[in-house]
Amino acid sequence: MLFLSWLPAYNTPFDPISHAREDEFCIRGSIFEQEEGDIITSGFEVEIPNPGLGLIGLGRSERYAVLSEKLASDNMPVELARGRVIAVPSELGQQTLTLRFQCVPPDEDVVLKTAANDLRTGEIDGYDPYGHPDDREKFETYDALFHSRDASDDPMSALAGRLELWRWDRKTLEIERVSMVSGGDTHIIDSDGFESTLQVTLRNPPRARTRLRVVASWTQEAKGVQSLPAVNMPVDTYSWQDLMQKLPQPGTSVGENTGWHVAESEITYFNQHSILDSFDAGMEKYALNDEKVIGCQVLMQAATVGVQIRLGYDFQQQREELLTISMPVAQQEVLGDDKNETADVIHLAPLNLDPSTPLWTFEDPTTLEPMQYEIGDEVIYNGHKWRCIVAHTASTIFSYSSFVQVEKRAAINPISARFFDSTRGTRAVRYAIRMLQRRVYVRARCLEISFQCEWSAARSMKCGDFCRIYNRKIGTVQAKISSIKLVAAGAKRYAEVTLLAYLGDGSLAPVPEAGEEQTGLITYKLSATPASQPTNASALRAQVHFVDVINAYAEQKSAALFEQDPVAVIESLPTRIELDVDPIREEDLLTRNLTVTCKPIWIPRDAVIGS
Prior knowledge:
The chain is mainly beta and about 600 residues long. The chain is about 10% helix and about 35% strand.
């Protein structure tokens, strides 16, 4: 018989003596465990005599209970499940009512979110695409670029690159991860136990080849000041005052739409020549044709001016890379329609931002309660990354004294002209491959086998375990359990079990050859065209320019000699510094295509179909 005993706390250890009692008499009951998307949930329900309104007294709706039993073959009572009442019964006016329990701890959302966040690897150093697979695993099974900044609100996203499911243990109420492929106990069911209830259904198997496109968009940027001055030279001139007054100021554009501007300009030194130069001048202007004047000369003093000009650059180029992944699957030929399927397209988060650090907010968007920041918490505020150094409750104004600014980590160097075939991009490629692998594996579990068997044979089963059965029509099948329901209705007890079997063709996992790479058990080859670079952004900081001095001292002196008005001649030939720069080329959107071709991915051979 079933025993339902109320617990003082959800984690109270099961006591075969004190808990094997009927706090509520169980007329009938059932226990279920099943996959719901990416999580395995469990619960139980019992039908009891209606105890009246006292059942819904204060606190009763949140109480935990443990369900146990003692079969004739058991030496002592066995715990079956424990859980929390999840709904107030609606049959309070009937002779009996049903209590429904969910096998989760009181703070299940926090527990699940914490477990998921432990799997999220942000923008940290240490990734080596050619390192040991164990060292690469945490990088290649999660990439924040593929998810929203508030991805922590969705614990399921942490498993998007893993062949795993979340599972709540129905006895301990702890969260765990179970593999979709391996692990777990193996239960053997004799054919006599399910022959009459066997149902076999072929679900939607994956196509022979599945495709996925990933789009990365970013603005390639190079902004800064050159490491060396473009002009750093002495200039000898008579028009030194004019030269110093008209020296270009910081911010002045060099040419028109060249991408270059004056970042710094200064006169580093100034030395007047100690020897004056004399020039013969016309009598008409300088002596007013005075007959007493025999001749006129003009004395001019030149100077050496030290000029230094450093240029700045501003380059922006819109870029886009389209990564197309093609993944064939090594499965047996099965019936299916030949309709074309629309390939999924994933747009990555901006590459120049830190995608894994949450934005600062003063209140929880779900509860509207003030945020509690602990030491070490990191946030993005006003475009910068901050780390909490003083635990505090947030107010509507950002507390600069409680945070310290730290380096913001982005997925790409702003000057980079390529992404997917870079070190960081390799991580994104491999995560995308694993995401596609998971999607293929979910569909590859396409043979659904359901049957009923004895309660005692299924009592220890759980989702994630293997079950091996034999039937003359389907042969031997060993596959993962996707759902189980234990039903006790009076003296009748039975279990409903569903398996999901892979239909692999029996081939082994491919081994990488020359020019191929591997992530997990997937072997692939990346093909890419060179990145178009109309401007070499990394070379702008050290780019050399042509500099020429126009109308310097020698040219001015030569032109003024033997002229009637040497002053006017020199004034008409002011000294100028001419700077010839190569314009920084910026094109419209530059699109680059890359292709990943996988070898047929291995899937288990849980069953054999065909002749």
